[in-house]
Design a protein that fits this description.
Shape: globular
CATH class: Alpha Beta
Distance between the termini: 31 Å
Helix content: 10-25%
Order of helices and strands: EHEEEEHEEE
CATH topology: 2,3-Dihydroxybiphenyl 1,2-Dioxygenase, domain 1
Number of strands: 8
Radius of gyration: 15 Å
CATH architecture: Roll
Low-confidence stretches: none
CATH superfamily: 2,3-Dihydroxybiphenyl 1,2-Dioxygenase, domain 1
Structural class: alpha/beta
Mean pLDDT: 94
Number of helices: 2
C-alpha cells in the first residue's frame, strides 16, 4: 500500500468543562494558548499544530448530549514535547489529573509510554523515545 496521507487525520477528546480541560492541557504540555471556538451547542478548543511536521491535529470538544469522556474508550498517545515524558508526567497531578501508569519501556526501538487520567475522566497516553 502506498500511503498518500497519514492514517489519522484528526482527533477529538470529549470534555465536560471546556475551561477546566483547557487549563489542564495547557499546564501539562506548557501550551501558551488553545484557540477556542463555539459552534452552536458544540464548543471546541484546538491543540497547537503545524502542517509541515509529522503528527495529527486535534482538539477538545464539549458536546454534552453526544460526547462523553471515558476511561475505557479509544486511547490517544501524545508525544512528549519535552522529549522525555517524565516532564509532562510530573505536571499531571498538579494540573488536577491522575497518573495511572508511570513511565514504562515498551521496547528499545519504540521507546516509553505512560498513562494518565485527565480532569474530564479520559484515559490518555504519553510517548517518548527516551
Amino acid at each position: 500500500m502506498d500511503l498518500k496521507n497519514n492514517m489519522i487525520g484528526w482527533f477529538e477528546i470529549p470534555v465536560n468543562d471546556m475551561n477546566r480541560a483547557i487549563d489542564f492541557y495547557k499546564q501539562v504540555f506548557c501550551i501558551d494558548e488553545m484557540q477556542k471556538q463555539d459552534f452552536g451547542e458544540v464548543q471546541m478548543a484546538f491543540f497547537p499544530w503545524d502542517e509541515k511536521i509529522p503528527g495529527s491535529p486535534g482538539g477538545l470538544v464539549c458536546y454534552p448530549t453526544e460526547y462523553k469522556p471515558s476511561e475505557s474508550g479509544v486511547l490517544i498517545y501524545f508525544n512528549s514535547i519535552a522529549g522525555d515524558l517524565n516532564e509532562e508526567l510530573g505536571r499531571i497531578e498538579g494540573a488536577g489529573g491522575k497518573v495511572l501508569m508511570p513511565k514504562k519501556l515498551i521496547a528499545d526501538d519504540i521507546g516509553y509510554m505512560a498513562l494518565f487520567l485527565d480532569t474530564e475522566g479520559n484515559r490518555i497516553a504519553l510517548h517518548s523515545r527516551i
